[in-house]
Amino acid sequence: MSTTTYRKLIATTLTPHFREAAEIVEEPIPEPGRGEVLVRNLYAGVNATDVNITAGRYSADPELPLDLGAEAAGEVVAVGEAVKNLEEGDAVVTGLLGGGYREYQIVSARHAIPVPEATPEALSVVVSGLTASIALGVTGDMGTDETVMVTAAAGGTGQYAVQLAKLAGNHVVGTCGTDAKVELLRDLGCDRPINYRTENVRKVLREEYPDGLNLVYEGVGSSLFDTCVDNLAVHGRLLSIGYVGEYVEGLERVEQPRIYAKLLGKSASVRGFFLPHFRRYFEEHTQRLFWLIGQDRLHVAIDPKEFIGVESIPDAVEYLHSGESRGKVVVQF
Ligand SMILES: NC(=O)c1ccc[n+]([C@@H]2O[C@H](COP(=O)([O-])OP(=O)(O)OC[C@H]3O[C@@H](n4cnc5c(N)ncnc54)[C@H](OP(=O)(O)O)[C@@H]3O)[C@@H](O)[C@H]2O)c1
């Protein structure tokens, strides 16, 4: 590869099987236009939803090829006309769909957030952190002195939810699938980590939380979603932020009474949350998250497994979906 070209990952076919969809292409490095900057990506964030993107689920009428990836941390290497807030050499993070899995990206200067250093921790704020912060605070009406349950609690966004719920003064229950993640959850301040492979979640909730769950940050789906709904407290709120367990194989058909029978008698609710619908909260919550990290009150765990180069991205996505990862999975360029 010469220095006038760069590589990116695109989807050439629509499928939730990421590796089948992904293809590396090489293109000329573009020049930034008016109001734009050219960013050299140093790190990209890996997300459970990458397989939804390749499946074409982010658009009613997806057009191939699709650019892949979302959040990135990098360095501004060229600045277009009329850009006042950034200059060459600035470290930035970005969170634009299609902007992650590529060595360079053109981005509007308004969408490049200056950071002291382009690190994996910094990039984790703009999708994983924001989702937890806005979902809990805005959609979930998070209070204090409540019991908050987080599923996939040791994952990219789950780790933020655990800590933000603790910072707000709540008791936090977190589910995960390995003992190593139980350790991480303890380090993050989770009051009751549950390894669902060695403990029965339904039994733990029935015995230890008979008054139910006030707020649930739920990103796994399947039977864990059912268990959480069944254990909501009076006025309990369940935030359905994802159903990673069904992204690749497809939605399971279930037959059971309609959900209102479980909600009405408790004045409980299930609330969907999709980050792109909450843009007006991005700036305020981004600032707060960076402030908390700067104050050492919020810690971001980055999975230690190294993925280097565009060619490593399918491995990184499969690793995240294996259930083995802890914290945020990142790819380095
Ligand atoms: N709504 C939004 O705007 C939004 C934004 C960001 C993320 N999300 C959602 O948040 C959830 C977590 O996403 P993330 O990117 O932060 O991923 P992640 O939590 O870092 O990784 C996924 C985790 O899900 C758990 N999991 C449980 N059952 C699984 C299964 N059958 N297959 C794969 N993983 C399974 C695994 O942890 P354990 O086995 O330890 O539980 C795995 O480590 C996803 O549902 C994602 O779509 C939603």
Structure commentary:
With 333 residues, the protein is of the alpha/beta class. It folds into two domains: 5-118 and 302-332, Quinone Oxidoreductase, Chain A, domain 1, CATH 3.90.180.10; 126-276, NAD(P)-binding Rossmann-like Domain (Rossmann fold). Helix content is 28%, strand content 25%. The protein has helices at residues 18-21, 50-54, 120-139, 158-167, 179-187, 201-208, 222-230, 260-263, 282-294, 313-322; strands at 5-11, 22-28, 36-45, 66-67, 71-79, 91-95, 104-108, 113-114, 147-150, 171-176, 192-195, 213-218, 232-240, 269-272, 330-332. The strands form three sheets. Strands 3, 5, 6, 7, 8 and 15 form a six-stranded antiparallel β-sheet that branches. A six-stranded parallel β-sheet has the order 11-10-9-12-13-14, sandwiched between helices. Strand 9, helix 4 (158-167) and strand 10 form a beta-alpha-beta unit. Helix 3 (120-139) packs across helix 4 and helix 3 (120-139) crosses helix 9. The chain is globular. The mean pLDDT is 97. The chain binds NADP nicotinamide-adenine-dinucleotide phosphate.
**Weakly predicted, low-confidence segments:** none
Coarse morphology: globular
Average the pLDDT over all residues and give the rounded result.
97
Quaternary state, please?
single chain
Overall CATH class of the largest domain: Alpha Beta
Bound heterogens, unique: NADP nicotinamide-adenine-dinucleotide phosphate
Our measurement of the CA-to-CA distance between the termini, rounded to an integer number of angstroms, reads 14 Å
Task: Estimate percent helicity.
Answer: 25-40%
- Write the H/E string, N to C: EHEEHEEEEEHEHEHEHEHEHEHHE
Q: Based on DSSP secondary structure assignment, what is the total number of beta strands?
A: 15
- Amount of beta strand: 15-25%
Q: Write down the Rg.
A: 20 Å
Q: Count of DSSP helices?
A: 10
